[in-house]
Amino acid sequence: MKKLDSIIILSLIFLMGCNVNANEDYVSSGDTKNAIIELYTSEGCSSCPPAEAWLSQTGRLEQYPEAELIPLAFYVDYWDYLGWKDPYAHPDYSMRQKMHQINGAVRTLYTPQLILDANELRPVKMLPERFGQVRSSKASLQLDLRVDKQQDHFKVNLKSLPLKTISPNDQSLFFTVTESNIVSRIRAGENSGRTLTHDYVVREFIGPLEIDTTNESSIDQLILINPEWNLDEVAVVAFVQTMKGEILQAVRWSNK
User: Fold this and answer.
1) Confidence (pLDDT) at 13
2) What CA–CA distance (Å, rounded) separates 117 from 115?
3) Residues 180, 141, 222, 201: what is their CA dihedral angle, to the nearest 10 degrees?
4) Fold classification of 23-254 (topology level)
5) Contact assessment for residue 39 and residue 48, using Cβ atoms and an 8 Å cutoff
6) pLDDT, tens digit (0-9, with 9 covering 90-100), for 103-157
7) DSSP secondary structure letters along 86-136
8) 10, 93, 190, 226: which could form a disulfide with 74 (CB 3.0–4.6 Å)?
9) CA 19: distance to chain centroid?
10) pTM recorded for the entire structure
């Protein structure tokens, strides 16, 4: 009996030890450059649902793994005047779109608008070529992302390792939380009466943050979990961007 009791106790200790880190996950970007595709959209825009459906479908295709072509859907607030206040819109997202114009990535701002690797994706049939160009590039950085999911927050750690010589003081770090499979019933505006399903919705946008890309570095970030989020559909994305908007590297962790 004593031997059996010892085995049971050791087994329990082993299981408890496993459970301590059961909610902790780790992903690495690798040394090849990943791409971020940004969709600027709005629930108040009648031409946006087809673009959102295209992004959702693209994210399900085997040739575009979500870890390599990372989708971010930014909902802008400048269509709210049409009578429907977009619950996922934020002025910061509209400002990010504006920064793409300032940096020369686009000439005009509109929705839906797609930005791939700091350049406008238009027409969308250019995606295979443009994505291939990004993926064939040697990355300047390797990003290692660790996410420890707690009851009310994510404890995020990002390690950055330079793979090339990078000019100092020209980069910023951003964290985003995205949520997919969101169903929204629109009661006013151009899409009044429609029920829309959204994927890759940016729910939290943190940055710009300082990062030293000339040396190996480690950054911790606490992200509070909104009770409204469906955690089964949540992903955390980290990316490093230059002052001119170029994405040096990106990494994505999914809770699925």
Assistant:
1) 37
2) 7
3) -20
4) Immunoglobulin-like (2.60.40)
5) no
6) 999 999 999 999 999 899 999 999 999 999 999 999 999 999 999 999 999 999 9
7) -TTB-HHHHHHHHHHHHTTS-SS--SSEEEETTEE--SGGGHHHHHHHHHT
8) 93
9) 27
10) 0.90
Instruction: Name the pairing type of β-strands 24-28 and 35-41.
Output: unpaired
CA gap 191, 193 in Å, rounded = 6
Exposure string for 190-218, b = 16+ CB within 10 A, e = fewer = bbeeeeeebbbbbbbbebeeebbbeeebe
- Which residue ranges of the chain lie beneath pLDDT 70? 1-24
Are the C-beta atoms of 250 and 242 separated by less than 8 Å? no
What is the structure's pLDDT at 14? 37
What percentage of the chain reaches a pLDDT higher than 90?
86
Write down the residue that tokens 């100092």 correspond to. Answer: 168
- Residue carrying structure tokens 């329990």: 12
pLDDT of residue 19: 35
Cα 143 to its chain centre, rounded Å, is: 14
Distances in Å between the Cα of 142 and the Cα atoms of 96, 161, 198 are 24, 5, 30
